[in-house]
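haha ok so turns out i had the wrong file open the whole time. this is the CORRECT one, sorry everyone. sequence first:
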Amino acid sequence: MEAIAAAGGPLDAADLGRVKVYRAGEPADGVDLEVADDRLVYDGDIKANPVIEPSSVIVVPGTEVRVYVAGFIARPGQVALRRGATALDAIAAAGGVTSTGDGTRVALARKTGEGAFSLEIDVMSALDAREAQGKPPVAPMPLLEEGDALFVPEAVPAHILVLGEVARPGAYQLQRGAKLLDAIAAAGGATARASLDSVTVYAAGKPDQADQRAIGEGRALFASSAQDNPELSPGDMVVVGSRAIYVSVVGRVARPGTYELLSGARVVDALAAAGGVASGADAGAVVHSRRGFETGSATLDAEALLRDPSLDANALLADGDALFVPEAREQVAIMGEVARPGVYPAGRGTTLMDLLAAAGGPTGKADLARVKVYEGQGGKATLGADTGADSQPGDLTGLSLAIADESLVYEGNIKANPPVVAGQVIVVPSAGIRVQVAGHVQRAGAYELKRGAGIAEAITAAGGVAAAGDGTKVVVTRRDAGSDGEAGAARAFEIDVDAVLAGGAVGLELADGDTVYVPELAGQVVVLGEVARPGAYRLPRGAKLADAVAAAGGLTARASLENVTIYAGGDASVGAGAPIGQGKVLFAGDGAANPTLGASDVVVVGSRMINV
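then structure:
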């Protein structure tokens, strides 16, 4: 029951009371779909639920039987009946016997494992008995089996029977001297699957032989192309063969199943009919199993055949052949800037670009010039240490995401397209870097920049240095990579961003993970003399003399703008132990000149008053 469930469960027409299990042949012989009855190991109700062995073949029969009804009936052809149906049911499903048919001599033909036999049935008598008594006749009619053929003969002299791949199989009365093509034309012509190189004509049998041989088991008068067009005799039977073959395609394909192909089809045609090789398949180890006269199996490289169908390995298929596409056991992990990071099969000849395409291609942020390939541990890269019950054969198990650089086997442009082997790990890095900008900027936060960006780009992305920030002492902190995937020591760099933005200094190229900090402007401007509120004031970068005077409440009535002096900040400034005014004089003149002030400068506004 587990095997049937794995196959999707039984169909509505399945007969679960007649499930059969066959023992398969030796593994070296490949899958043999022609299962012999002597290999039958179980035949019964599925509820018994027996244990199955590897390579067993399970056959779930249908509850329907399909039989051919030909001759003088309303609708000749194939009919589907419930198992247990009789010839009477088949004749009724085909519309009943026509006015010119003889229902008392219906021929039942059947092939079995021991040969073939035929039986003549009186359908009309059985129908009369059922109508008269309201129940089946005392002598029950034989139950029909799959593939049985019923023929209702004409009640008048014999006709020519045309069966097989024709539009309207049945018995047809032709003129004396009619030929093979006349009989095929009377039956509506050949179907699209008909093979005119497989037409057989059988001699008419005698009435007393009807219960001794199956239809078509008489002496073959002709077996060749219909173009030879031999003359037919009354009672002869024409069988038009089919040029269709049935091939099974199983394993890792898009649509496993049995497909009807035309004679002359090759391996690639069967793979195409099944939707092609599916992901996760080992296309280089496809098994082609033959049946019939050329038994045995061969291993094929489906990828090579699809690239070049003219190869000898793209063999002609025969009816009953089977193709098995196994699952790939060798896999490679790919991560980073790809559409679908994960684990993918890596068969023979798989390249870096093949794996990138299988993962959905690179994202817009991928840096294809810095792709890295790492060697897996012991030849088998793994994803985590869990190797529990969910692990499958061939899975990548135990892959450490902190991959050591010593395992790096390739780093460069993906256009080089090196081959990859099972167990490797492919990392597609991002073309951008992420840096943190903090401190006194307009918009502090994390920013993604292009690789190679400098500190000026980071400050600009954050909206620039704020008014209270000191752009001359910006600090960049960088943490180096340590050994064994651990974080290393941190390094700090002090950069004069104001000089960089002004073009007077060279900036620092940032790395992924750097932190940029803009400190607060430390210095204050001291305003003394004839101002409303003498004292120390914090002014924005670039503030001028008039800004300082305004911050101090403006000039008094005694102020003299021709007597304004600016002293350089530093050791000579207020609080440094030196009298005010002993620092370096930066400016001594008219306040209307309005020079720019620096941090810690001292402004002294003189008086126009004198003491007498």
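The CA atoms of residues 305 and 327 lie 18 Å apart.
again sry for the mixup
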